[in-house]
């Protein structure tokens, strides 16, 4: 055996790279041993192979994909190698922004879950001035079983292109049904953080008007709730309402079934 050639076990010991990994590199053609003994079929790595392994290890520390690593090994041109790495740098920056958003979204979701856990029904009604908001809304329908499917269809493309999971769901409520203590969802709507809604048809955009609102937290059990304090407050203060919105309090990645909280916002009109 010529001097400067090494069996795979020795190479593994020298470099710290496992034999399984070296076998894998050989299998995919990334690093093929320079010499094979015809008598016993043993594979021997040359000094050049060790240099190639240094290049591979350096690239892997940069998380350069193996197909790009193979290009670098094939180039033998540092100018081309530098340009390839600069191109990959742009991808690395994109991925960095992506994972930063993932980290922020996970923290946001944790805060939303805490809001759900801390929710308490209260008879307290507050008057607040709220600015107008544009939301994605499903088609208004009297078929109460289809409101969510309508919203899913309306928001499909916007959700596909959104960079974040941060969003809020809510409902436009039937005011007459509320007086009877019932929750009838005329339409479901969705707010997506920092969204331009450029992938939503105009007919599926609903504008919640700016103005004064009566706001309270209500617990909804089996699609029923006590709205008595809200209507009593409006009567005592000389108001009626022409639109009531119910924002789900927090976000959880499963359907609410029989027991959940909403922030009720009744748009106020003077009697």
UniProtKB/TrEMBL annotation:
Q: Which InterPro entries match?
A: DNA-bd_dom_put_sf, MerR-type_HTH_dom, MerR_fam
Keywords, ordered alphabetically: DNA-binding, Repressor, Transcription, Transcription regulation
Boundaries of every HTH merR-type domain copy = 5-75
Oxidoreductase keyword on record: no
Pfam families, per database record: MerR_1
Q: What domain of life?
A: Bacteria
Report if keyword Transcription regulation is assigned: yes
Name of the molecule in the record: HTH merR-type domain-containing protein
Q: Which organism is it from?
A: Blautia parvula
What phylogenetic lineage does the species belong to? Answer: Bacteria, Bacillati, Bacillota, Clostridia, Lachnospirales
